Amino acid sequence: MQNDEQILEDVSKVSIQLLLQEPFYGHFFTGLIKKVSKEIDTLAVGYHNSLITLYINSKFWTDSLTNEDFKYGGIKHEILHIVFKHIFRYKSFSQKTIFNVAADIVVNQYVAANQLIEGAVLLSNFPELNLEPHQHVNHYYNALLDLYNKFADGKNEEEAEGNEAWKNLKNFLDQDAENQKRHSFWKEIDKLSSAEKDIAEAAVNQALENTLKRVKSKDFGKLPAGLQQYLEEFEKSMVPIVNWKRVLKLFANSSSRTEIRNTLRRPSKRYGTNPGIKVKKKQKLLIAIDTSGSINMEELKDFFNEVYHIWKQGTEVFVIECDTAIHSEYYYSGKTPKTVSGGGGTAFEPPLQYANDVYRPDALIYFTDGYASNPTVRAVCPLLWLISKEGSDLEYLRDFPGRKVKMI
C-alpha cells in the first residue's frame, strides 16, 4: 500500500490531468485541501479547520481506484458534489439515504463511464422511472422517494419483485453501500452553526467565481450543456436581486377589491347629507404552502412568518398545505400550525386547480422551493411564486406562469 506522501503525489498528478483535459475542474480542484485519512473508507468531501476538504482513504485509493481513469473519475465525482452544493443541501431532505442516491445520479452523469468504478449509481439503474437526464437533485429525489413509498412497506411485493429500479434502490440504500459511506461527512457539515455554514458556502461561491473567471473566455463552452446552464444560473444568483419582501407586499395589496357601503356615522363629504359612503378594501388570498419532503423546518418557518404579516394587513387568508395533493385547508387565524401534512413529492397543479374551481381568490401566493415540473394548469387569478432561500434558481422557473421571486 502507498504511504500518505505517495498518495498525495498521485492526487497532484490527477490535478494536472484535470487542468490539461478539463480546466474547469482542474482550477476548482487546486483550491481544495487534500487530506489522507482513516476517518473515511472511501473518497469523501468534508469540512476541516473551516475549509472544505477532500478526504482520501489510502486503502480505497490503491485497492478500489485501481487505474488512472478511476482515480480521475473519483476526484471529479467529489468536485461535482461541491460545485452542485450537495454538501450544503443534505439537511433539507428527510430521507438522507435517498438524497445520497439522487445526488450521485446528478454528478455521475458528468463522469465518463470508464471512469466510474463498479457499483456506481447511474441513471440507467432505474429504468421503470424513465428519469430525464441532467435534472436537479430534487427531481431525482422526488422520483426515488415515490418509488420507496410505493414498495418499502411490502404491500406490493409481487410488483416489486420484477421492478429493477426498486431492487437497485434497495441496494444503494444499504448503509454499507459505497455511496452512503462517501457522504458520511455531510452529516458533520449539517451540524455546523448557521454562521459556519454561511462561511463555508461563501468560500465555495468564491472558488466557483474565481474558476469561472479563469475558464469563461476559453474553456467554458467545452463544458456539458447542463453544467453550463447551472453555472450561468449560479452567476445570476450572485447578482443582487429585488427586495422580495416589498414585491410580496405590493402584490398582496394590489390584489384587493373595494366594497362601497352606506354609513350613518358620518355625512357625505360631497353633499353634506346622510347617509355617507364608506369605501372598504377587501382581499381574499389563497396561499399554498409546499409541504413536500424536500421542504425543511426552517423553510416552513419562513413561509408562515410571511403568511402572518400578510394576514396582519386585514386580508382574508386561506391556506392549503400540499405536496402532490392537497392535504389540509383552513382559514389562517394568526397562529402557525404545530404540524403540517405532506412529506411526499411535489406537483403544482392541485393548488392552481383549487384556486380556479373552488376558492376563486383575488390572488394566489405559492410558497415553495420550486422543484417540480412546470404546471400544466394555469391559474385564472394573479399568481406569485415565493421561492425559499435554499430553493431553485429563478432560471429553472422561467417558463412558469406568474411572477417569481426568490426569498433571501
TrEMBL record:
Limits of the Putative metallopeptidase domain: 53-273
Residue ranges of every copy of the VWA-like domain listed in the record: 286-389
UniProt-listed Pfam families: DUF2201, DUF2201_N
Source taxon at top rank: Bacteria
Protein name as catalogued: VWA-like domain-containing protein
Organism: Microscilla marina ATCC 23134
Taxonomy of the source species: Bacteria, Pseudomonadati, Bacteroidota, Cytophagia, Cytophagales
